[in-house]
What we know:
The protein is of the alpha/beta class. It has ten helices and 13 strands.
Amino acid sequence: MNEGMVFGPVPSRRLGMSLGVNNVFPKYCSYSCIYCQVGRTDHLEIKRRSFYDPRKLAEEVIKAYRERVPDVVTFVPSGEPTLDVNLGLEARLIKDSGSPTLAILTNSSLLFMDDIKDEVSLFDIVSVKIDTVSYETWRKMNRPHPKLDLNEILDSIVTFSKVFKGRLISETMLVSGINDNEEEYRDIARFLKSLKNLFKSYILVPVRPPAESWVRPPGEERILKAYSIFLSELEEEKVELLVAPEPPTFRFREDLQKEVIKTVYVHPLRISYIVRLAEKRGKDPQKVLSDLIRSGEVKLVEYAGEKFLVPRIRK
Ligand code: SF4
């Protein structure tokens, strides 16, 4: 089983070239979102634990950062990064090594815990997930741990926004038939407006194979409706639509197969990207693909007319 702690850099639609840190593996998460690109959650958890030796993880990140010079180092694991009890120590060790820009993508469900709030504050960029402010939709879409409470989570995001000194961004995923109606859009946008110093609100749609195969993005008209409602509540420069996949500019430096596998555990890859990567390295794409499948670590799935590599352990 793959245990790569660092992968990429991969092009992030929000952050530029991002060196990924997979500090939670396998998939431990407090949510099991229907659209999750890592698949269904194996371990639905809210209790923090240790996943790796924090010094070893920081060492690996610092080494990769110096070699690969990404725009940003992002904690974006197979699950929820704040479940890692060593998160604060890891962030401090990495920052002390020469201050790379540090980002974290959290579902924000555990921000009500004071230790987590303090540790997340160490990051330069924090992305919080706000797919809905409706209890019913939250249960359907994010399928949270039964002990979580949506109101407590929303309150904790507001509190965090008042004390956080870095760049706060939000992500809202739209799923057809679940949260793509005007009432939801308006309620989410009003909540976002209540945050202090929100730098940008991103509206996303599923572009990679989701945990549930029936999940679809809303039609163009509904996506644009969300955009216009968000604009009516927030300032124009604060709303951005991210509905297209990233450009194929992965910068893999190590062994191609190893790097692809490490990336796929967090970030399913289009077959067309892998073919291009193999060609760039002067390798036979068909051989690269069949070696990857033969490794037993990844498998092929189809979503929205495109083929992707995803982890074999994915449910
Ligand atoms: S999308 Fe994020 S929060 Fe949702 S299940 Fe996947 S890892 Fe967890």
